[in-house]
Design goal:
Helices cover 20% and strands 44% of the residues. The protein has 235 residues and is α+β, with helices and mostly antiparallel strands. The protein has a single domain, classed as 2,3-Dihydroxybiphenyl 1,2-Dioxygenase, domain 1 (Roll), CATH 3.10.180.10. The strands form two sheets. It has an eight-stranded mixed beta sheet with strand order 2-3-4-1-5-8-7-6, covered by helices on one side. An eight-stranded mixed beta sheet has the order 10-11-12-9-13-16-15-14. Helix 2 packs antiparallel against helix 3.
Length: 235
């Protein structure tokens, strides 16, 4: 058996970028973030609640999904057995994605300007499902009534905690494979326009999907994220 016995649940995000000050300015203007400093780095705050961690680091700017789990070492070991590569606290899966683990961390509270969903983007959905079942004990299931299996929910203990999207053309050339964070906003169209004015790039223009209205954006350093007005939120 290679499966991790306890599911890991996505509970937050961390941005690693070469210029934290520039990122602070961009996201403050775009998502209304303020910031709190501590010995561990910069925490973005939205609506009085922690929204994200910001860290300085070399290499391409990227958003990391952070999973909370009781025993990170056991999950790391399961991930390695399933084909992952470790780099300190970072776990690189064999399919182009990456994530981090935190022991018993408090999950981010969904809300405006804060992460509200996590989704794995891929062109090899079966391989993704096998890895994350073995490594993080997440089970995949196609939502009832779905027309096909291009989208699946990833569940922990029977509860949906993330999604898996098989990228169709041309999204497979526009969006990177791996974990995507969705930030809740009230006006995706306005946020998409403002992001470009602030130096970001619009990768996928605002559009309606079953879960709401979304737009995919790269910040000025290239870190990719999605904004969403959930379907249950009035326009």
């Amino acid at each position: 058996m290679t499966t991790s016995s306890v599911p890991a649940v996505p509970g937050g995000v961390a941005l690693v970028t070469a210029d934290v000050d520039a990122a602070r300015t961009f996201y403050a203007a775009l998502l209304g973030w303020t910031y709190a400093e501590s010995a561990s780095g910069t925490t973005a705050v939205a609506g009085g609640e922690p929204a994200a961690e910001l860290h300085s680091g070399a290499g391409p700017a990227r958003w990391w999904t952070v999973f909370t789990v009781d025993d990170p070492e056991a999950v790391r070991a399961a991930a390695v057995r399933a084909g992952a590569r470790l780099d300190g606290d970072d776990v690189h899966d064999p399919l182009g994605g990456h994530f981090r683990l935190r022991a018993a961390a408090t999950a981010v509270v969904p809300g405006p300007g804060r992460p509200c969903w996590y989704e794995y983007m891929t062109t090899v959905p079966g391989d993704v499902e096998r890895f994350y079942t073995d490594a993080l004990a997440l089970e995949a299931s196609v939502p009832p009534g779905a027309p096909d299996d291009s989208y699946a929910l990833l569940t922990a203990g029977g509860r949906p905690v993330a999604g898996r999207l098989a990228l169709p053309a041309p999204l497979d050339t526009l969006l990177p494979a791996g974990w995507m964070v969705y930030f809740a906003v009230t006006d995706p169209d306005g946020v998409a326009e403002q992001a470009q004015q602030l130096g970001g790039r619009l990768l996928v223009p605002p559009r309606d999907v079953l879960t709401g209205r979304v737009a995919a954006i790269a910040d000025p350093a290239g870190a990719v994220f999605t904004v969403i007005r959930p379907a249950s939120t009035p326009a």
